[in-house]
Amino acid sequence: MKKSSAAISIIIGVIVAAALSFAISADIALFAGFIVAIALLIYSDRRSVKLEGIIFIRRTQKGRSFIDRVAVRHRGFWRKMSYVGIALGIVFMVLGSLLLISQAYAVLSGAEGGVKLLLPGPVSTPVNAPGVFVVPWWIWVIGIAFVIIPHEFMHGIMCRIDKVRIKSVGWLLLIVIPGAFVEPDEKQLAKTKRATKLRVYAAGSFANMIVAAIVLLVAFAAIFAMSASSVIMPSGVAFTPIKDGSAYNASLSGSIIAINDISIRTHAQLSSELSKYNPGDAISVSTAETYYVSGFFPQGVINRDNVTAKTVVLGSGENGKAFLGVGVLGESVELNMSLQAYAIISVLLFWIFLFSFGIGLVNLLPIKPLDGGLIFEELVSGSRHKKVIVRTVSVFMLLVLIFNIIGPLFLTG
Known about the structure:
This protein has 12 helices and 15 strands. It is α+β, with helices and mostly antiparallel strands.
């Protein structure tokens, strides 16, 4: 009876909270629903979930046999791939460290720079702020899934090809930040040869880089396929008016699609058509409303249902030629598909790439206990001062990383 009353109270509370959230904002309501779903997941599996410090952890034996099968069937392939992973891991460790230090210098100089945390939030579009990128929670969940699953799966495979036992697999939760893990037998791993340790440590970020590369290929293939099939086609020139120029004075905006009824689809066509006129000539410029979509695909999307034609008197440029006074942003496109579908595909591919590459790169920094720190420890294991070297480099790089995150809050305008 008490359990039923508690369940009813929870359901009523969720309904009331959802109603209040929708009254404030749909984004807040959806984010609240995301948090409630996580809470219900933990509650429903509470007997198997353990609280270790401030982290909820759920361990299980499920999934180990699948990892074993994949590792055993293709052991030769994975072993060859592991050496590629080690080499790339070391290269990206060095490049990532240099990039982080150069970004810290940029921040010290007052320039835009730094590293940003990627956090979920009650927003419909990504919010860029110093030290943090707040992205819609659903993008964040998908992005994290594409990071965690290949990352941990590859760790497990590299353990098993050298017969390192996997104690458990599972998921964890820090507040609303989910994670997953493959837990190897640390004592057994510590006794293995250096090559085994390096392939295990490098495996996760190597998987993330593979995902990032695949996303890039998919994005370019999608752009090519959509262009070839006329799903997208150049249909105008997106621009920004130069202050006090002809376009600015005529209040032009959007994308130029025609001059004196001559169709303009590309930047080259715009330049060619303007070259026919002289300073002081009055021309009719047709512009279309333009939506801007972030991601891998072209940004300007033309809305031909909202076209405006205005008379513009051309000014004179520095070379004495006719000057419209626009800064070209790029060629806009016309869609033969849903704008919403186009935007979702573009944004998702972009953020999956950013999550995979960015988190994979940070994980390779020589900061113990990150995988990069463990790789670095193995690389200097022959030194008598191994512990001092690893501790010094880890602390230094950690401070540089923290400065990159919080420095812009104080040093950039």
